[in-house]
User: Fold Redox-sensing transcriptional repressor Rex from Caldinitratiruptor microaerophilus.
Amino acid sequence: MRRPKIPEAAIKRLPVYLRVLEEMQEQEVPIVSSAELAERTGFSPEQIRKDLAYFGAFGTRGVGYDTALLRRRISRILGLHQGVKAALVGAGHLGYALARYSLSKHKDVQIAAIFDVDPLKVGTRIGDVVVRSVSELEQVVRQEGVKIGIVAVPASEAQRTVDALVSAGVEAILNFAPAKLKVPEGVFLQNIDLTIELQSLAYYTSASQVEEDEVRVEQP
Amino acid sequence: MRRPKIPEAAIKRLPVYLRVLEEMQEQEVPIVSSAELAERTGFSPEQIRKDLAYFGAFGTRGVGYDTALLRRRISRILGLHQGVKAALVGAGHLGYALARYSLSKHKDVQIAAIFDVDPLKVGTRIGDVVVRSVSELEQVVRQEGVKIGIVAVPASEAQRTVDALVSAGVEAILNFAPAKLKVPEGVFLQNIDLTIELQSLAYYTSASQVEEDEVRVEQP
Assistant:
């Protein structure tokens, strides 16, 4: 795949633009300026123009972007125009919440399969999707053409799960297990570690102690 | 509070350093080089030296950092040395997963209170913590000295929840509701939007279409 080097932070902003553009299209706003996008997303107009220019989307100076065209463009860049299939592994509370949320909210990333090891869960449904045994993972993922894997299993099972997903053809993985995982080159791995999120949040409270006169950490 | 301007990305790396330093202390490694930290965290040695220097932590050239001192330093920077209390609002599947996970895994950010609107949930326990009615939120948060709020309520309830947390003295908020929320200056808001995570993941799959010869989005 040829593609420009785009910072991850810019990719993360694309779905936000998409959401705003969908709203504006529903409100039948035909043209949108970077200033309006800034107002609705909270990003700066400069940031927005820079992000969109990565993908060859240039507004007309003093006019703006064609709402429908820009929406379609971003949708294709993200690969959402034709829908992308995802598989969820791990139907515990977190997995259940993710599945329920994803199944109800958006069709462009579709949870096409759910797997768990627990025989009591196998055969039950979350929304319209039947939970299957992990033993069927590789076959189903390959058959369904699943491209995204969501890992919500315990840390001890995470690497094994990732290996199975990758071997079945998954190209991008969203991992919630608190484990340092290895993927082969060409597979994208995004970790969401809730411990890290919570711990780093504490920095922004008055509990944080950054004193200028603190002793330097040095070897004697 | 006086504090240096530190990029958010650097703050997010601190808990990772902390985890590695804890491991190394358990393994009784007295001194750690930036190369070893790089090996164990996956970040580059240059990145690590730069991050730690923000906080006045300088290793000795060719030797490294004192493991115990550096761990203590990072713990204080993050405000975790004395423990930080968090309150969770919303005990649905996501909230339940967050609470169970946080309650079992780490003591430095402690979930001190859980709230829900559902009378069937109020009075039940998650781990050792009793779920209380949202009507008690402000009083309990103030009483307990809670500094962090975790929002796992539906989008329609999110702003009201955040307002109540802020008014009770919460200083940093981790929000899982897919809503654009307002907080007053001085309160830190971190959003984790699972739709955005999933949608941006699709960019890294073969579904993404970034063609160089694609038509530019322009006004005629």
